[in-house]
Amino acid sequence: MTNKRSRLKIETTKKLLDIESRDRLTSKSINALSNNPQLLKEYLESSLAHTFSELLFRLTYEIYSEEKASQLWKQIVAHKIDLEKMFKRDVGILVAALDYLTNVTGDLSSPKIMDDLRIEEAADIATRDSLTGLYIRAIFEFSLSRIIAEHARYDKKLSLLLADIDGFKQVNDRFGHQAGDDVLRRIGKLFLDTIREADLPARYGGEEFSVILPETPINQAVALAERLCKKVYQHFSEKGPELTISIGVSCIQKPSITTALQLVHSADKALYTAKHAGKNRVEKYEKDSHLGS
Question: 40-49, 68-77, 151-160, 201-210: which range is least confident on average?
């Protein structure tokens, strides 16, 4: 019996590996999950990152809370069954989701159906800032809590960078907003060229940027932040206008920093220290040195 159970577990794992490719889900793979309730259950339990909100996000590129996503998924699956009875064929979970969210709930105003070869292009349009090429803030917030939860599950280090352009207002005032947009575009590229593939960079605000650094202790995060500062300084010293960035660094630290809000707040405090200590510098959050902040 034990050997049979082990074989079944191995088979399930192989199926999951077939469906999952570096955490990228497509409409085709999600359709395979929706047609196999047991496999879906195994998949959802295999990682904290894979939830109903993740499944719906990969289908529609709309962000739902986990509670709403769970309810919607059940309703969409029931709608899929109704459609298949009506049309007497498999309509697929993507068609069912878009039809339900458009024609039944009205959640989506302009749905699009596309093949998997174009899914990455659509994802970029929906999730990345058009100016910098970095992820939009909503994706940063959507991702941070679940990345923290997964790291806590395996007791892994996780760091966060918050960066701000020094003197950005003066660039806009002196050279105009087109020059300001060009600065943002160039800094976005510098970030993308410097960070690792596993990192998640975002445009956090107007001239603020953030980078989630999975499996990264704070000293490694500081080293990366210092490289970013140096690259920005060198680039704009050579090509103008002269400007720099300041970066605050924080890391998950039990028991004081364990949530997304605490991690962002501590990185923001470190950024504040960097700005008021002369700018063009990196500061890491250390509890004792920020008690009065």
Answer: 40-49
Query: pTM for the complete prediction?
Result: 0.67
- Provide the sign of the torsion angle of the four alpha carbons 46, 49, 50, 53, taken in this order: positive
Domain residue spans in the chain?
2-126, 137-290
Q: Do residues 248 and 204 touch, judged by C-beta distance below 8 A? A: no
160 token code pair: 């966060």
For residues 240-256, give the mean pLDDT.
94
Bond before 241 cis per omega within 30 degrees = yes
β-pair partners for 161: 211, 249
More confident residue, 128 or 4: 128
Cα–Cα dist 203/168, whole Å: 15
Look up tokens 């809590």; give the residue.
Answer: 145
Residue 83, SS3?
Answer: helix
pLDDT (0 to 100) of residue 50: 57
Cis peptide before 37, with omega less than 30 degrees from 0?
no
* 11 among known catalytic residues: no
Pick 50 or 137 by higher pLDDT: 137
Annotated active-site residue in 207, 242, 283, 286? 207
Residue 123 carries which side chain, given as an amino acid letter?
A
The C-alpha atoms of residue 117 and residue 130 are separated, in whole angstroms, by 21
User: Which CATH topology does 137-290 take?
Assistant: Alpha-Beta Plaits (3.30.70)
Distance of CA 9 to the CA centre of its chain: 30
